[in-house]
Design a protein that fits this description.
The complex is a heterodimer. Chain A is of the alpha+beta class. Chain A is built from 19 helices and ten strands. In chain B, α1 packs antiparallel against α3, α3 runs antiparallel to α4 and α5 runs antiparallel to α6. Chain B is globular and about 60 Å long. Classes of the chains: A alpha+beta, B mainly alpha. Chains A and B meet through α12 and α13 of A and α1, α5 and α6 of B.
Amino acid sequence: MSNLVVQGYGDSHVGAVRDTNEDALIVDPKWGLYAVLDGMGGASAGDIAATKARDVVHEYVRARRSTLAPRQLLDAAINAASAAVHGEAQRRRDRRGMGTTVVACLIDGRRATIAHVGDSRAYLLRDGRLHRLTNDHTIVAELVARGAIAADEADRHAYKNVLSRNLGAKATAAVDLNEVELQAGDRLLLCSDGLYGYAASQALHQLMGAPDQAADVVRDLIDAALRGGGGDNVTAIVIDAGTQAMPRATAILRTSGAGAWWARRDRVLHAARAHGIHRSPLCAVLPPDDAIALVAGNFADAIYHDLEKSASVNVWTFAENLAVGWLGQGGAWAPLRELLDGLGRAADAVVAELRGEDVGLAGLIEAALARAMVTAETAVGGVLAQQLRTVEAELVRHAAERAKRDAEITSRFTDQPTVPFMRAAQPTDAPGPEVQHVLDGARRRALGRPAATNDRELFMRAIEHAHRVATAATDADATVAARELFDVRALDEAGVTPLYDALDAARAAHVDAVRAVPGGVGGKLAALRRAAGAYQRLSSTIAALVVESVAPTAEQLREAAAATAALRAQVTKNERKVASLERKFATIIDDDLPAGMRFDLGLDRKRAEPPPVPRRRPSKETLR
Amino acid sequence: MSGVPSYVAAFEALRPAIGARLVELRGSLDHAIARTTPEEARVLFDGVLHAVATLLATGDHDLHRGFVHSFVAVRATEGVGPDHAQRLLVAILDVAAAEARAKHPDDPTAALAITHAARLTARIINDTIADEIGRRQAQLAGGGGTGARR
């Protein structure tokens, strides 16, 4: 298998915020070595760490390229760099704690060996899909890997930038290594976090997929990070494997198409005005000229840049910003929809004009514009979907709050009904000391009385449970007490009747006992009400339990009744059919008999006089 | 003259090749589809291509809207949001348009028609999402209840 032609290009930018660039890079096609290093540490120590590590790695690879296999070579080179940075940090107090990340790629024929420590990354673009080849060595990434936090929390986590591994913290470094078998058309990207942290992943994907030279892609990637804020140093290396000829149509678009579009920029603005873009509610706060310049101008510029780069990242960004700005302040979809349509029509007008000059070029631009409008719709779709998720989350939060309020309102209910028509338990006032005294005395007296039933044990249990219900602070106890009394009782007369007999006897004894207890009239009346109420509650709850127990049987009975009714209907139908056949049969037999022997079934009376000619004997088929 | 645009026949002729290319590239279209077998992926892609063929042949936007609504609803049952469903459909149609461009470099009409279909599809999904937002906001305004659609 032949080797691939590999071309790489790298660049670094200080960014839009920092004063110094602490990133370093290696682009050495001769040795097939490419690396990005991102230094850290105060007082320029990061710069020193990255530079030192870069030099050591580079020198190490050049010196031992022919003696070590790529994996061992990169591992050893990075460890040597770590030892060097660590040693430097130990020698000078002002460099204590300095360190660097590294992501390195060593290409040997078709094989690319990737080594990394820290959060600098490697990506592979293959068949239009961007694959990440490295996992960040950060505290947060490790928490995600262990399942301690969710992946979507990682971006918001306070320690998202804290490294779990770097070069220089120790004399040795744990290096992650993997290998990729390159194919023609593959494109590798090595970058520092200043790139992926500030350029949207969509933009990375788009720009990496552009059919540009590596140098152009690197420039566009760094531009994207700077547009995204450029809050850190930005370094990127793009390595192309094999040669990929740019499609002819793409080449035309990038040259003539972009130029032709740019030359008609004013025409786009004019057409946008003709389509009333400035009257859109989105432009309500702007003077008409400013509205046209801002909205239609940015739209035309975005299309120009995308034509020039054969990408769609600029239109995406334009549409996304438009949607975020408008929908984010509560704007409706319809005006934004109308505005997008107006811009599309303005662009179509320019294409129509161009068609008179160059049909082929107009066709190419028309196709590119159509694709740009798809991009705009998709970008807006993402914003709309995000808004939908936000509204849904808000709705859920409201519903949850309302449910909580409802729960607070009904919190006085301490139990839920377990039988459909049994009301939920409610709290009752606990008996006062005087009533409690009477009830305790009544219980003792009632238990000592003879049972007016055969089952004394059940009688005593009924008194105990009724006392419990009468003295309880909630009537939930009634349900529990009733269940305990009902137990696993069979639903026949011998099962339920003794229970009701025992309850009846216990109630009579208990009420008598209340009356007999010495005490004030008020306390005794209250105790009497509580005792009588307890028995009433027990009886009704046991009745509900009986219904609950027979429910399955009742259901079976209902089904059996329905089946019986259906069978009865069938029998009736069959009986009618039999009667009808019998009548028919009798008539046929009767007709065949001599006149004097015929049965009088009462049917002949309805018929006219029989015909004078004898009837043919019916066949067996007919008789049957 | 039948009056049917030429791209209808061109797309119909391209369908097998587009389907095969989609199966080949399914890993780059959607993570969920990446895990399916080629046969399962083919069923999904055939459904989309059939709907697009119908749209190109009939120009019936309402019919296509019905298909898109069903597609989004089915994907929703798999936990896929409408924006992801939108990107998947657009990606499928991008592959179809690229295949049309590759097979007919001198006749861009089929590729252009497919791109317009992609835009219509994306628009229908945006309309759907906006409708849903309106309904949810009405529910919120009505007290955040779990009641029926207003």
